[in-house]
Specification:
The chain has 125 residues and is mainly alpha-helical. Helix content is 50%, strand content 10%. Strand 1 and strand 2 (46-51) form a beta hairpin.
């Protein structure tokens, strides 16, 4: 049987891994992470991303610019990430504080937190 300390260590490890994965996902130069990207539903094409940066839109012959892939975002000189390290950490902390959401997104971490529910770890992020 694991001690409370060992469970806390595993919980911290899982939290750190989840935070690192979220940072990697949300801090990359991707069309999904750009603050100027607006996703709209287009008939029979699903969701398509459009750039709302007026400087970029003004440089096109049309009144819109489609930014719907990684290459376009990676080459964009005006890319602005919609997330910060602090906002990513805050979102993860909010997920962890909501048992239902934590159970859905991080089930193993939710189980460890449930075991430690009387521990001080929940207040130490």
């Amino acid at each position: 049987m694991k001690t409370e300390y060992e469970i806390e260590q595993k919980c911290r490890e899982m939290y750190s891994r989840a935070l690192a994965e979220r940072k990697e996902k949300y801090l990359t130069k991707s069309h999904l992470n750009c603050s100027f990207n607006m996703r709209c539903r287009v008939k029979q094409n699903g969701m398509v991303g459009f750039c709302t940066n007026q400087t970029i839109v003004d440089d096109t012959k049309r009144n819109f610019f489609v930014c719907n892939d990684e290459r376009t975002a990676a080459e964009c000189p005006l890319f602005k990430c919609a997330y910060t390290e602090a906002s990513i950490k805050q979102e993860l902390d909010d997920i962890i504080k909501d048992p239902a959401r934590c159970g859905k997104e991080y089930p193993k971490l939710a189980v460890l937190l449930w075991v430690l529910q009387n521990s001080t770890l929940l207040n130490k992020h």
